[in-house]
Automatic annotation (TrEMBL):
GO terms for molecular function: neurexin family protein binding. InterPro entries: C2_dom, C2_domain_sf, SYTL1-5_C2B. One of its GO terms (biological process) is exocytosis. The gene is Sytl2_0. It is found in: Cell membrane. Residues 1-12 have a biased composition (Polar residues). It holds the Pfam family C2. Keywords: Cell membrane, Exocytosis, Membrane, Repeat. This is Synaptotagmin-like protein 2. It comes from the Eukaryota. SUPFAM superfamilies: C2 domain (Calcium/lipid-binding domain, CaLB). It comes from Smutsornis africanus.
Length: 350
C-alpha cells in the first residue's frame, strides 16, 4: 500500500514502554503564521473559466531605496474568457497580505485580445525589509471587463519570510485555482490526502499472526497539494507525526523529504501500537508539514486528528483543538474498526 512504513508505540506513563523505530530531529519553526487574506484580493466576478497557464516574474528588494519590486514579465496559455470572440484581456494584480487596505494593491496594464500577454512592468512597494518578511505576496491574473465584472484567471501565493532573496532571475510559475479558504479569510496552506485506521486489540482473531495484543492506529500519509511556494524551484517538504500528549522521541515519526515540489507524494505509513479503545477519546494525532533546509526547517501547516474537546485525560490542553472536519474524520475512524477511512483535510496554522 505504501513504499515506506514505520511502527512506533503510543505511550504515556500509564502504558508499558515498548521499543520503537522512531527518530528525532531538532526542527524549529522560524516562520510565524500570517493569516488574513482579504476579500478585496478577490474583488470581481470569478466567471466560469478554469485557471490555467503560467506567469513569469522575479522578486527583488532594493536595500538602498527600501523598495520591494515585483518584475512581472509575461504570461502564457491563459484561459479564454470570451469563447465566442476567442479573447481575453488580462492584467496582473498583486497584494501584500495581510494588508487589509488598498495600499497593498498594485496592477499592471491591461493587454487586449491575448492569452500570452507580455508586460515587462515593475510593481513597487515602499516598505521596510523587516515588515516585508512577515507578509505574503498574492499575485493573480484577471480578465478586464469594461463593465467591471472581471474574471479570475489564476494566482500564486508566496511566503516572503522564506523567499530566497539571492535569486533575482525571472522564473515561470503555474497559475493555481482560487482558494476558497482565502476568500473566507482563512490562511490557505495546502491540503493533505491521507487515510487512517484503528485496529482494536485482539480484533483480528486468534488465527491471525498479526493480531495485535494492544490496539493500533495506522496513519497513511499519501500526498499534499498546493503547499506554499517558498522558492522558484518549489519546496523541499516532509511530514512529522506525534501522538499527543506524548511528545517524546519515541512518539516522533517523519517521512522522507520530497524535493522541489509543491504537490509532494509521500505514500508513507506509520503504525502506533499500545492503544486502548478508551485512549482514542483523549489522544490526538498531530501531522505537520515542514520545508527542509540545512540550518532550520520552516513550518508550512498541519492538522490535528482528535475529538477537539480541549481536554486530555481530564487535563485542559490547547492542542486538543481539532476542527469540525478533523473531528468528523477521527469519529468515523472510531466507529469503523479495521477499516481505512480516507480524507482530504486542509492544512492550518497550529
Amino acid at each position: 500500500e505504501s513504499d515506506t512504513a514505520s511502527e512506533i508505540s503510543f505511550q504515556f506513563n500509564k502504558h508499558k514502554k515498548t521499543p520503537s523505530t522512531g527518530s528525532h530531529s531538532s526542527d524549529m519553526a522560524s516562520v510565524s503564521s500570517v493569516s488574513g487574506s482579504v476579500l478585496s484580493v478577490y474583488s470581481g466576478d470569478f466567471g466560469s473559466v478554469d485557471a490555467q497557464g503560467t506567469v513569469e516574474f522575479a522578486l527583488d528588494y532594493d536595500e538602498k531605496n527600501r523598495e520591494f519590486q515585483v518584475h512581472v514579465s509575461q504570461c502564457r496559455d491563459l484561459a479564454v474568457v470570451d469563447e465566442k470572440k476567442g479573447r481575453s484581456d488580462p492584467y496582473v494584480k498583486t497584494y501584500l497580505l495581510p494588508d487589509k487596505a488598498r495600499m497593498g494593491k498594485r496592477k499592471t496594464s491591461v493587454k487586449k485580445r491575448t492569452v500570452n500577454p507580455i508586460y515587462n512592468e515593475v510593481l513597487r512597494y515602499k516598505i521596510e525589509k523587516m515588515v516585508l518578511l512577515i507578509q505574503k505576496l498574492n499575485l493573480s491574473v484577471w480578465h478586464n471587463d469594461p463593465l467591471g465584472r472581471n474574471s479570475f484567471l489564476g494566482e500564486i501565493e508566496i511566503d516572503l519570510a522564506s523567499w530566497d532573496w539571492s535569486n533575482r532571475k525571472l522564473n515561470w510559475y503555474p497559475l493555481k485555482p482560487r482558494s476558497l479558504s482565502a476568500v473566507n479569510g482563512v490562511d490557505h496552506r495546502g491540503v493533505m490526502n491521507l487515510s487512517i485506521k484503528y485496529v482494536p486489540p485482539g480484533s483480528l482473531g486468534k488465527m491471525c499472526p498479526k493480531n495485535p495484543p494492544s490496539g493500533e492506529v495506522h496513519i497513511w500519509v499519501k500526498d499534499v497539494k498546493d503547499l506554499l511556494q517558498l522558492r522558484p524551484s518549489g519546496v523541499d517538504s516532509f511530514v512529522k507525526c506525534y501522538v499527543l500528549p506524548d511528545t517524546s522521541k519515541k512518539s516522533y515519526q517523519k517521512t522522507r523529504v520530497i524535493k522541489r515540489d509543491t504537490n509532494p507524494v509521500f505514500n508513507h505509513t506509520i503504525v502506533y501500537d499500545g492503544f486502548h479503545t478508551e485512549d482514542l477519546k483523549d489522544a490526538c494525532v498531530e501531522l505537520t508539514v515542514w520545508d527542509h533546509e540545512k540550518l532550520t526547517n520552516h513550518f508550512l501547516g498541519g492538522i490535528r486528528l482528535g475529538l477537539g474537546t480541549g481536554l486530555s485525560y481530564g487535563i485542559s490542553v490547547d492542542w486538543m483543538d481539532s476542527t469540525q472536519e478533523e473531528v468528523a474524520f477521527w469519529q468515523e475512524m472510531m466507529s469503523a474498526a479495521n477499516e481505512w477511512i480516507e480524507g482530504l483535510l486542509p492544512l492550518r496554522s497550529l
